[in-house]
Amino acid sequence: MIPTTPAMNPTLSTSLVRRSFARLLHGRDALDRLMNTLQSPAALLARLFVAQVFFASGLTKLRDWDITLSLFTDEYQVPLLSPEVAAWLGTAGELGLPVLLVLGLGGRFAALGLSVVNVTAVVSLAEIAPAAMQQHITWGVLLAGLAIFGSGRWSLDTWLPAKSV
């Protein structure tokens, strides 16, 4: 008897393809379950990381308000705002929005607000070092992910009742 190979036997070939496809789908489903399980802790880590950066910056501005006003007058050229208003708004955003982000309370709003602060910081500087630009890009990508996908299940937003439209 001559051994049969999948190429010589269409039924054997179809069966082999089906089993391979089933294994592939099973692996994809397992990967989906793993990624779904990791979504909330990953979102929390992103929230904590970005919030710490902006909150620390806000605290630095509060430590010496005269220097902060001087920076907004001489170095940061925030479009459409006076240096005093820009300093107040920037500092308030850097102190308030990270708290909301960490708690996951209005998480998308906080992420979008910090995105505005992040973009404004980049736009308002005449020159920015490549390493600093890379940091702003990293924060921007993390904030975009949080704004698009939300704060995850480990947030206060999940405990609030859903609003019906």
Please give a structural write-up.
The protein has helices spanning 10-63, 65-74, 83-103, 107-124, 130-149. It is elongated and about 80 Å long. The N and C termini lie far apart (71 Å). The chain has one domain. The longest helix has 54 residues, at 10-63. It is built from 5 helices and no strands. By secondary structure, the protein is an all-alpha fold. 75% of the residues lie in helices and 0% in strands.
Number of helices: 5
Question: Topology as H/E string?
Answer: HHHHH
What fraction, in percent, of the residue positions are helical? over 70%
From the alpha-carbon coordinates, what is the Rg to the nearest angstrom?
A: 25 Å
Q: In whole angstroms, how far apart are the ends?
A: 71 Å
Overall 3D geometry? elongated
Q: Please report which band the strand proportion falls in: under 5%, 5-15%, 15-25%, 25-35%, 35-45% or over 45%.
A: under 5%
Could you list the spans in which at least 5 consecutive residues all have pLDDT below 50?
none
Structural class: mainly alpha
Question: Can I get a quick summary?
Answer:
With 165 residues, the protein is mainly α. It has helices at residues 10-63, 65-74, 83-103, 107-124, 130-149.
Pick out its properties.
165 residues, mainly alpha
